[in-house]
Amino acid sequence: MSEKTYPSLEDVIGNTPLVRLQRVLGSDLASRGNVLLAKLEGNNPAGSVKDRPAISMIRRAEERGEIKPGDTLIEATSGNTGIALAMAAAMRGYRMLLIMPEDLSIERAQTMKAFGAELILTPRSGGMEYARDLAEQMQRDGKGRVLDQFGNEDNPRIHYETTGPEIWRDTGGEITHFVSAMGTTGTITGTSRFLKEQNAGIRIVGAQPAEGSRIPGIRKWPEAYMPRIYKPETVDELVLVSQSDAEEMARRLAREEGLFAGISAAGACWVALQLARTLENATIVFIVCDRGDRYLSTGVFPA
After folding, report:
1. 4 labelled catalytic
2. Are 135 and 146 in contact (CB under 8 A)?
3. Would you list which residues are annotated within the binding site for pyridoxal 5'-phosphate?
4. Are 120 and 89 in contact (CB under 8 A)?
5. What is the pTM of this model?
6. How many whole angstroms separate alpha carbon 3 and alpha carbon 282?
């Protein structure tokens, strides 16, 4: 009798579904031959696209001999990366210190703690910039190692190796446009590099917040804090999305498609719809970064 091999939790990160939206395009845009596809990254074990770089950064740092189980890892996070790193640290035996602005959703903080991570909350006024500065100071003080999602090439590398190839495979190479929210920029940078190698004509579009908008997961960084992994040449176009448009799209996706998505994912969908209004026979893929249940306490969804 042969021994059956079962996958570990790490083995099931990635290979997320790519699904066609049925109703939000409307008959007019659909009649032009446009197809709108959502890549459901909320199906990853810890619930977001950040599962991919989290396990990539830890595993490759281990391979290089930079860290070993039992060490303390530090990261500044707005939520999803922290949750993913908390999961990955639990899987591989690390102490995880996460630094997070105090105004982010309670669900995110509770989920990080559930995985055993320790949280340090920073003032809302300092934003992610202050959290990043504190993480670097803690590393200088010898309190642990910063993985640095903003400057670690193992972040976009995993999207080059997995997210891009999955999209290319699942569309049969028919993708014409790729849309992603821009925060850390690892997803759009790595995926773009792979897709452009397959077909330089694929348009890469980044969603950024309009002036005055606070959309979890979408950031427009000051120049001094621009993620070092970001390569501007990998993005063909930047489109601004307002907080109100992103939040309304999140509600529409749930009501009209049965797709319970986070606000940054909805922002990317809104951008994809704007593109569809100007196109014909386009295959537009956007990243659904996470699930909507991570935002219930924010009031975006009706009580």
Report:
1. no
2. yes
3. 80, 183-187, 264
4. no
5. 0.94
6. 47
> What is the DSSP pairing of strand 95-101 with strand 177-181?
unpaired
Within 10 angstroms of residue 119's Cβ, the number of other Cβ atoms is: 18
Nearest to 94 by CA among 61, 131, 136, 120: 61
39 flagged as catalytic: no
Q: Which helix (H) or strand (E) holds 84?
A: helix 80-92
Cβ pair 243, 276 in contact under 8 A: no
Tell me the C-alpha distance between 253 and 248, whole Å: 9
Is residue 38 within 8 A of residue 291, CB to CB? The reply is: no
Express each pLDDT in 66-82 by its tens digit: 999 999 999 998 789 99
Per-residue tokens: 41: 């990254």
Given 48, 56, 213, 264, the catalytic residue: 264
Token couple for 155: 């972040």
Residue 76 DSSP symbol: E
Active-site hit among 50, 56, 180, 196: 50
Residue type at position 117 = A
- Tokens at 301, concatenated: 């969804």
Each residue of 271-299: pLDDT tens digit?
999 999 999 999 999 999 999 998 998 89
Q: Which whole-number Å values give the CA distances from 155 to 17, 266, 274, in the listed order?
A: 21, 23, 28
* Collapsed DSSP state (helix, strand, coil) of residue 259: coil
**Cα gap 44→294, rounded to integer Å:** 14
Q: What is the largest CA-CA distance in the chain?
A: 64
Asked if 58 contacts 86 with a C-beta cutoff of 8 angstroms, the reply is no
Return binding residues. Answer: 80, 183-187, 264
Residues for the chain: how many in total? 303
